[in-house]
Amino acid sequence: MYKKSFKARIISLTAIPLTVTCIALILVAAYQTSQFSEKNIQEKLIATCHAFSESLNASTEGENIAINDEGVLCSGDFELSWFEETIKKYYKETGIFVSVFYGDNCVMTNMKNEKSSGIKLSKDVYGKIIKGETYFDLDAKIDGERLVAEYIPLYQPNGKEIYGALFCATDRNEFVNSVRSVADNTLVLSFILMVLSIFISVRMSVNYNHIIGDASKVAKKLAVGDFTVGNISHGINRSDALGDLARNVNNLKKQFTEAIGGVKSNIGILVNNSSNLENASEEAAESMENFAVAIEDIATGATSTASKVESSVKGVSNIMNTMNSINESVFKTDEFTEEMEKNSKEVASDFDELINETVKAVTKLKDITNKMEHVKEAVETVTVAANDINSIAAQTNLLSLNASIEAARAGESGRGFAVVASEISTLADQSNEASIKIRDIMTRLKEETEGAVGMVNEMSIMIDKQDETSRKSMTSLNGLIEDINKTKEMVNEVRNGSISVTKYCEEVNEDISSLLGISQQNAATTQEASATITQVSEITLNVKRMGNDIKEVADKLDELMGKFIIE
Question: How many other CB atoms are there within 10 angstroms of residue 540's CB atom?
């Protein structure tokens, strides 16, 4: 559920802003297209009006234009009927309507019903013409036609007196169809670009989600000690921070698997040797008990009379046999202690390697944390830049407002500048909205980055705990090695003691003919042997206790390592 939610959030962070931006661009493009088409047709009609106005004035030869008694437009005594033929021919070639008004009455036109239609200028239009202003109408209804029309004033040759107006117009349906065609093409192109941009952003978001999802899966398995999880396959060839994350997690898993595998294999050897040591110590203790019994028999024989020499000889023989068994047990114990010492040193070496690998893992986690901190700093930098963009947009809006005021003061000559100022204001508003969106996106990214830093810190704490546990185990193992060395020394003492006892027994066996001397010497020897046996018994018990401690430590280590699954 978390993965799907995270994937949806990544996609929304890219797809939604792109969609909103593309829709805004489509609307702006449609509006700009409409404005451009309107401006273009207006400029075309104005140019036509001025061309015909100049052509009409050029034929007057300085005479004022007026209407004669027959209602014909004249310049002095010269009728200007040729002009009507000219505008009719122009209509056939271009489809543009042209009419000449004297006052507010139409005196020439190339429209269908000509002057019989009784075309007159409206009061609003005529009021502007008298003031020397032009008039543009996007939806003029004249003679049953819906037109896009431009009206300009007509001046007498002296250039001061206005006697009428010149009207140029084109079919509104053609204008609307032209605008619609351009708008449709713009919408289709914008939609294709929007779909392509969203597709690319979704693909990038899916790739990011794969990498982060795989890293989360591996980290989750490692946290519970399962090292059988596969390596991260997505993004390992990337050269950015996500690629570093994938490669570092794979490397961390590999090194921990090798180290823990080595520790587990050596712990198995330690467990086996500790069991052998425990068994050997039990055998030694049993032999020492038998030896103590034999010593008691020797003491009894030493105080007995000569009649018991036979039994004393048998006791000495039993002592010899027992000492041979003791010697064999002591030799075995010595071999076991040497093997334990060797295995303990190997385990200590493996622990050193484990601690070194743990230190390397902590260093790499710190590197990851530093990189995440750099990402966080970069996010804060982008947020500051977004605020700067917001401030610039506000200043641009204020400059646009000032430009609009100055354009209004400039009147007709500043109209074009007013349009530019309006567009600048619109762009400033869009920049402001974009900066707000960028700031929101950076805030979310900052939160996600802080969450990732927290996860890496938690993993670092876990590895520190493992390092501390490993170091404690290393300390315990060093103590165990010292105890093994002490045990080895004690075993050597036992062996030396058993050799001495054997020599004593041999002497007793050789001098059996001198019963009195042998019995006295045997009594002294048995006292010394009893003390030695007591000491050896205590040493054997210590060895047994140390064997038990070693086994407990080995079992504990085996239990701890059992939490890690590497096969």
Answer: 27
